[in-house]
Design a protein that fits this description.
This is histidine kinase. The protein has about 525 residues and is of the alpha+beta class. Helix content is about 55%, strand content about 20%. The longest helix has about 45 residues. The radius of gyration is 47 Å and the shape is rod-shaped.
Amino acid sequence: MIYVITPLSLILLVNSILLAILGFYLLRQKRYYFFPLLLLATALWALAGFMENGLLDIAAKVLWSKISCIGVLAVTPFWFLFSLQYSQVKNSFIKRVNYFIWIMPLIILTLAFTNEYHNLFWSKIEPVSGAINNALVYSRGLGVYMSLVYSYTLIVTGIVILVIYAFKISRIQRLQLLTLFLGLLLPWIFNFIYFSYSPDFFQGIDITPIAFVVTGVFAALSIFKYKFSAIIPAAKDLVYSNLEIGVVLVNNENIVVDFNSTAKRLLENDLIDGVALAKINLTPKLTLENIIGKNENQVINLISKNKWIDIHVNSLNDKLGHLIGRAILFYDVTVQKNVEQKLQESNKFFSDLTDFLPDPIYVINAERKVVFWNKAMENLTKVKSKDIVGKGDHEYSFPFYGKRRPMLVDLIFDDTDKADWELYKNEKIEKIGDLISLKAFNKVLREGGIYLWILALPVFDSNGKVIYAIESIRDINDAHRNEEELKNKLEELSAMNKVMVNRELKMIKLKEELDILKKNIVK
């Protein structure tokens, strides 16, 4: 088999290799797979053109012309399917279209491969006289015109679909789409020019494959400059499934390539397509690029916009694990921050107020950790607030018992163990509503012991769940001592009264006996 190398054949070979590499590269990304299939079909078209252009054997040239029809007839269906896929049309509809779109190409391809029996695809095939590569002129038949009408219908329809969709996407995505348009437009223009003249005019040379070099360049530009089929698809679901979350997509050069309306509202005029993160100021001394560099979640106060935003940075990787960009998520936490600030102010007011109460008070949360310890409690226990607040595991029982054990305040919570209640089974616990109280003698707090009156009360959230428990302790040692002294005095008086009564009874009896004695003497 003799082959003649020509400048045209070299161009076609280089383009077929380039388009095949790009097609297989994109196919591995598993995104918009109809576009890489389009590139592979174009690569087959160019490869077949390379073979047909350089071979000298006429039968071999005709065979490769038929093979080129496979690529030619596959390009436009793949283009139409890609336009549907890129425009976010439902997959179920695309699958139905995919079943029927290949019927006409199969019919036309059958006409091409069986042309020698009916001449319906090429009415006549003749060599060009004097051509060094035995170039052939293919006179067009019915099958060729059927192919033209079907292909251009798909091309125009696909363009209309993408033009309509272009109004709904960002500027970066429109640049991607425009780049693809430019890459595919030139071969279609050349193809239109080729079919606008008679086959004899071009001396057997199909000028369409010559434009494939432009397709390769623009496809490469779209892939490597604008990251087509990589960064935008990888995060598209994230953008539209979190409408209440601001999303900004950036490439590896920290350039904004896409964002949603929530992000625009949060960052206002600072956010536009193609802007560098270094130019987006969150505060006078902090840019969005600084957040990327720290690679950690941060809550930022946008003072100029009177907003609080919680910023999360997530890496975007391709199927091979290579970093292709980042998704920056913005959560508007202004309401939460305002509530938190008011709660802190309320807590401070409560803390300042209870600090001056004469009774010792401390508060624990549901995790049994101390959250408040007032000055009176410091004076009673000799334990500073800063040394006990935040401590758990019954650390607050040490000043009272010298060991870890449940306090009365622990009995407030619903999840209290039965063993905790067992410690108080012999104590006289009084319960009035949610409040429980106990009078107890403590041997640890003071030498010789001290009598305490202990009160415990729950604090509920809006759902009725206990979130805090307060314990108040009052020193009733003096009152108890006075009570004991009064009791002793009463017992003493009672004893004295008993003695006096007994003495009076004895005197009455003695008098009665004297009276009887007097009577007996008189008799």
